[in-house]
Each structure stands twice: as structure tokens, then as C-alpha cells.
Amino acid sequence: MTPILYAYFFLAALLLRPNESSEPATLTAMLAAERREELISERFGALFTDLADRQGFNGNVLLSHNGKVMYRNAFGYSNLRAKTPLRIESVFQLASVTKQFTAAAIMILHDEGKLEFDDPIQKFFPDLPYKNVTIRLLLGHRTGIPDYMNFSGKYWRRKTGFLTNASLMEMLIARRPRSEFTPDACYRYSNTNYAILASVIEKLSGVPYAEFMKQRVFGPLGMRSTFCFDPGGSITIPFPTTGYNANRLPAHDDYLSGVVGDKGIFSTVDDMFAWDQSLYGSSLLRQATLEEAFTPSGHGSRYGSQYGYGWRISTAEAGEKILYHAGWWRGYTTLSVRRPEDKTYIIVLSNKVNWSFRNIDNLLAAVDDVRYEILASRHDDNSSR
Which of 30, 62, 214, 248 stands the most exposed, by the fewest C-beta atoms within 10 Å? Predict the structure, then answer.
């Protein structure tokens, strides 16, 4: 063997020899990652165990991090009187967390070229009396249109029947409740905005809101336990829940429950995890459209202007976004929190009015030690939060 050839084989042997020191380092890193996951699960579980034991939390929770479910559990009962235990498959009313789905449906129609965000609402409902109100302003609660929960009782006489989106649109056109401010002058949360958006979805798709959501969102994402409010009771729910007020008395549906888009979707923590994961590399929506949805639609940084399309938005000191929304309707309180930077997701679904879990800072502390000081809103959604 020539010296050159010998040197070649010697060098190749050195390069191909296993790095004996890399295996322990890799194993150590894996064990550290596993231990960190255990700690996250333990901290989050301890937090909700304490909330259940000491503060009356009753509901289901799920935490995921980097796309992996770290913790999921059910606390308490689906029926307090019968003491029927909650299951992880139990179904809850999402209340205002519904708004992110309504916004997504509008974005689907936008991506298909059926509407533009700056289209005036009169393009779809010419008789609606609110001028200079656009789809974008409806999404961001910047229209000035008053909340139907505050005025519909004056006009809706059939209290034994459900007010529908179509009936609400007729009421807006006939009764013309006065605007609270000039469109885009400021932010004010109004459930009417998302009820109108649901009517836009129906107008452009030609199918009821519930059917559109089933065909275009829930079905494609495999959200088999998710559906919209069914006034006729035709949907069979394997693991239903009863909503309770803070005094532990059942909270029954009333005529306002028939309006959807601002509320009205029912789901489970597992289905909501599937929804969250779909927003990364979404097959439903263009990435550019999602980025717009996760950008504050208002002016400045005051509270309320930090609202995107169906999401509240907070930005931490390090620059990462926290996307969240709370909900409250007829005995149900809910909270959805996303941190896209590391794919952290928290969903809390409760069937007893109880805001012990609304400190988002404490929830995220289970994942890391960063303090965000975010409190889920509970004061500006009236009955549907």
C-alpha cells in the first residue's frame, strides 16, 4: 500500500469512528427533556388540582407544548346533582371562544375570493342601517353597533322561542338601534358583530352557519365531537354536560341562545387541540391571512385595540405573542390560550361559572418562568364572554 493510500484509509477510519462522547451527551439531553415534560405536567396538574380543591373549579383542561399534549384531565362532574363524573370526552359550550371559528369561516371565504375584509356590510345586506361598517371592523369590534343582548329584549316578544340570526338581522333593519360611536373610532366588544358575520357566512355559502362549520372546518379537521347549538335537540351527545351558575343551580338556555357566531359552538378539549394544531401550516387558511388575524386591528396599544380576528392579543417583553380568548355563557366558562412561538396551547372548559383559572400568567408559568401578567377578560362581554 502506497503511503498516500495508507493515509487516505487512516483518515477515513478516523472520520467514520463513532464519537464515543456524543452518546452520553445525547442520552443526557433526552433524559433532561423527558424530565422537563414531567415537571410541566406536574406543575399544571398541581395548579388545577388546587383550583378544583380550593376554589371550586369544575371542568376539563388540556396543555400542549411543541405540539405534544403534556397534560389533560377532567375535574368534577358533568351533572352536579347526579354526581356524574366528567370524562375527557365531555362536551362543553365554548361561549365566546366560538368567535375564533366564525373569524376562520370568514377568512375561508376571503381566501376563496368571495369577500374582501374592507367590503362594506351593505354589500351583503343593503338594508342594514350602519354605514361605513366593513367586515374588518366587525372582526375587530370597531363598528359601534350595540350588543344585541342589551336591546333585543325590548323587541323580541316570543320569549319561549329562540331568537335566530335571521330574526336579529330583521330586528336591526326594522328597529335600527343607535350606534354607540362612529365606525373605527374606537374598540367596544359587541356580540352583534359576530352574529352579523355568521349571517354573512350563510349569505355567501348558501347553507346554515352550523352546516358550513361542519362541512368546512369540523369535518376536515376530524373534530367529531364539535357542533353548533341545536335548538331542535336532534344531535345525540354521548357525553353531555349541564351548565351551572356560581350558586350551583342549573343555567338553562333562553331565547338568546339561538343566535350563533358570537357563541353557540360545543366542543371537547381533544377537538380543540386538533383545532389549534391545524393553525400551524393550515390547510384551511393561507398563512398570510392567519398572520393578519393575529395582528391587532386597532390603533395604539391600549386595552381593546389589541384584538385581531376572533383573538385577543398580548405581546410579551421578549416579543412573543400570546393569543387568547375567554368565554362565558349560561353556566359555561372557557379559556383558550396560544403561544405560537413554541406551540404552547391551553384550553380550559368549565361547566360551572368559576373564574379561578383566568390568570393566564399562572397557567403559562407551568410551562416556563416568564411572567406575562395577562388576565382573561371577563368584564366586556356581558353575558357571552
Answer: 30
Distance of alpha carbon 256 from alpha carbon 253, whole angstroms: 8
| Nearest residue to 90 (alpha-carbon basis) of 203, 201, 243 | 243
Give SS3 for 62: strand
| Count of CB atoms situated within 10 Å of the CB of 234 | 6
Is residue 5 a part of any domain in this protein? no
What is the model's pTM? 0.88
Tally of structural domains, the chain: 1
Phi-psi region of 121 (alpha: psi -120 to 50; beta: other; left: phi over 0): alpha
Residue 279 counted as domain residue:
yes
Here the CATH number for the domain that contains residue 271 is 3.40.710.10
**Tens digit of each residue's pLDDT (9 = 90 or more) over 197-240:** 999 999 999 999 999 999 999 999 999 999 999 887 778 899 99
CA distances from 343 to 60, 66, 191, 320 (A): 20, 5, 29, 11
Give a yes or no: residue 126 inside a domain. yes
Domain limits at 61?
A: 39-76+89-365
Q: Which residues contact 87 (CB under 8 A, 6 or more apart)?
A: 74, 78, 239
Q: Report CA-CA distances (Å) from 150 to 50, 118, 139, 156, 209.
A: 36, 27, 20, 12, 23
Structure confidence by residue, pLDDT tens digits, 100-129: 999 999 999 999 999 999 999 999 999 999
Average pLDDT over residues 271-277: 97
